Amino acid sequence: MSALSSKLQQQEKTASSIETRAPKPYKVLLHNDHYTTMDFVVQVLQEVFHKPRRDAVKIMLHVHHQGIGVAGVYPMQIAEMKVTEVHNRARAAGFPLRCSMEPEE
User: Fold this and answer.
1) What is the pLDDT of residues 32-56, one digit of tens each?
2) Class assignment of domain 22-103?
3) Are 68 and 31 in contact (CB under 8 A)?
4) Would you say 99 and 29 are in contact if contact means Cβ atoms under 8 Å apart?
5) What share of the chain has pLDDT > 70, as a percent?
6) At 69, phi and psi to the nearest 5?
7) Is 59 in contact with 31 (CB distance < 8 Å)?
8) What's the gap between Cα 23 and its chain centre?
9) Do 45 and 56 form a contact (C-beta atoms < 8 A)?
10) d(CA 86, CA 47)
11) Angle between the 76-93 and 38-47 helix axes, to the nearest 10 degrees?
């Protein structure tokens, strides 16, 4: 019985020493260009990033004036999906809208 007890204690120590961490967040960025319409960018922010219209307009204007802006912050896999979805929608609509992601600091 002591061998089994010792083995269980060892497993408990191993299990308790494993750290769990939240996934590293990534910023999804929209880049300004001279061809994509402001209305399309607002639509993307509302439909892909689920932003209320007021927030979508504010982000779009920031992108327009600053050249780049944060559309949202997500775990890596979700951020990758958002970037792909933005690119797919933009190409389907005939716009060169660029979207990228980077680790949040």
Assistant:
1) 999 999 999 999 999 999 999 999 9
2) alpha beta
3) yes
4) yes
5) 82
6) -160, 155
7) no
8) 11
9) yes
10) 10
11) 140
CB 30 within 8 A of CB 63: yes
Does the pLDDT value for residue 26 go beyond 60?
yes
Could you identify the residue written with the tokens 């007890």?
Answer: 5
CB 59 within 8 A of CB 99: no
| N-term to C-term CA, the chain | 51
Encoded tokens for 42: 């607002």
Strands (E) across 3-92 are located at: 25-31, 68-75
User: Distances in Å between the alpha carbon of 48 and those of 4, 8, 17, 29, 61?
Assistant: 53, 48, 39, 13, 17
Contact 35, 96 (CB under 8 A): yes
Could you tell me the sign of the dihedral formed by the alpha carbons of 41, 43, 44, 45, in that order? positive
Q: What's the order of all strands across the beta sheet hosting 25-31?
A: 68-75, 25-31, 98-103
Q: How many helices (H) and strands (E) does the chain have?
A: 4, 3
